[in-house]
Specification:
By secondary structure, this protein is mainly alpha-helical. Helices cover 63% and strands 0% of the residues. α3 runs antiparallel to α4, α6 runs parallel beside α8 and α16 runs antiparallel to α17. The N and C termini lie far apart (77 Å).
Length: 367
């Protein structure tokens, strides 16, 4: 039986239908924008945190390669394709053109151990010391991956064996950290400084900490040293300084430097202690020694610049910061410190420009 109740005969209100459709369309639009934003963000993360060639199997990879500024020569070098690389160079492809990460084709070939391509690029006058954004040279990249033959080819073509990245490591440090014995042998045979320090550690100290007995033996055979006693004396100096015992601190730092004449942190400690004794000229000498031993040791630059700033010797302070930024051009704190010197000198435009650079590089104090 058909229901004839009054409720079934009520007319349908169609006045709200356009509103419902508008709400649905708006929701779809918002979802589209949200998903698009997430996809854009994910793509950005892939571009900035991953080597695009290493994810070549992904469908997006060709786009990512192009977005990262990879040239056909970069791709040929990364793939070890000698014939294609030779053709591109013959056709006039720029040998030292950089991709979006500031890396040349030589870097990409060296990182992957494609020694034939490395040799070809060097024959076409590729710069063996071209640095990427983090200060890595082709030699550092080859050492990190343990490509001994590639290291030998780079060294025979004038690569700087003393080059360090912004992290403070030399090629020997990178090889030792990764446990690459053959790479370390080639570097030591090529004259790598066996006792150069990174973050206060020599290659031997790194190998000992990692309990890599083969590398320990190799480094010791080449004169590698560990400086635990010198570090203990330096720690004593820091402790004396904290308790206001400046003369004892200076004596402890002197003992540390007698045990390890290349302890840049001991020179820095000595400089800060001399400032506490109101001896800025002697302190500057100590800070300059620390900088000479470790050109990327920011604390020493900051302390020396502060002495010049107190004396209103603005140009000397700026020279120091320019020297540091030549090694670490992306260091936001250094740009900030330099901008403060500019302000002291009366250069308002330079001050504001420095703040903008520092903020763009992530130094929050400048923002």
């Amino acid at each position: 039986m058909i229901d004839r109740s009054p409720e079934c005969d009520l007319p349908v209100d169609l006045s709200r239908r356009p509103t419902g459709i508008a709400v649905a369309v708006l929701a779809c639009l918002l979802n589209y924008l949200l998903l698009s934003g997430m996809a854009y963000w994910m793509l950005g993360q892939i571009k900035t945190t991953h080597d695009p060639y290493d994810i070549d199997a992904l469908m997006l990879s060709p786009f990512i390669l192009k977005a990262n500024g990879w040239t056909p020569l970069h791709i040929a070098a990364a793939r070890g394709d000698v014939s294609t690389a030779a053709s591109l160079l013959t056709d006039g492809q720029a040998v030292d053109q950089r991709n979006g990460n500031g890396k040349t084709a030589l870097y990409e070939a060296a990182k992957r151990g494609h020694t034939d391509v490395v040799t070809l690029l060097l024959q076409h006058e590729a710069n063996p010391d071209a640095r990427g954004k983090q200060g890595f040279t082709p030699l550092l990249a080859a050492a990190e991956q343990g490509h001994a033959d590639t290291i030998e080819a780079l060294l025979s073509n004038g690569a700087d064996i003393r080059a360090i990245c912004t992290c403070g490591d030399s090629a020997l440090h990178r090889a030792v950290r990764r446990g690459h014995l053959a790479a370390a042998q080639i570097l030591l045979a090529g004259g790598a400084p066996v006792n150069q320090k990174s973050h206060g550690e020599t290659p031997l100290e790194i190998a000992e900490r990692d309990e890599d007995h083969e590398l320990v033996a190799l480094l010791q055979a080449h004169g590698g040293r560990e400086f635990s006693e010198a570090k203990a004396r330096r720690a004593q100096g820091i402790a004396f300084q904290k308790h206001g015992q400046i003369d004892n601190a200076l004596f402890a730092y002197a003992e540390a430097l007698n045990l390890d004449p290349e302890d840049y942190e001991a020179y820095y400690g000595r400089g800060t202690a001399l400032l506490q004794k109101d001896a800025p000229d002697e302190a500057l000498i100590a800070f300059q020694a620390a900088i000479r031993l470790n050109p990327t040791y920011m604390n020493a630059y900051s302390a020396a610049a502060s002495v010049y700033t107190v004396r209103r010797q603005w140009d000397q302070a700026l020279i120091l910061w320019d020297q540091f930024l030549a090694y670490q051009p992306q260091n936001g704190r250094a740009h900030f410190e330099r901008s403060i010197v500019k302000r002291g000198k009366g250069d308002s435009a330079g001050f504001l420009q420095g703040l903008q650079q520092a903020c763009a590089m992530g130094h929050q104090a400048a923002c």
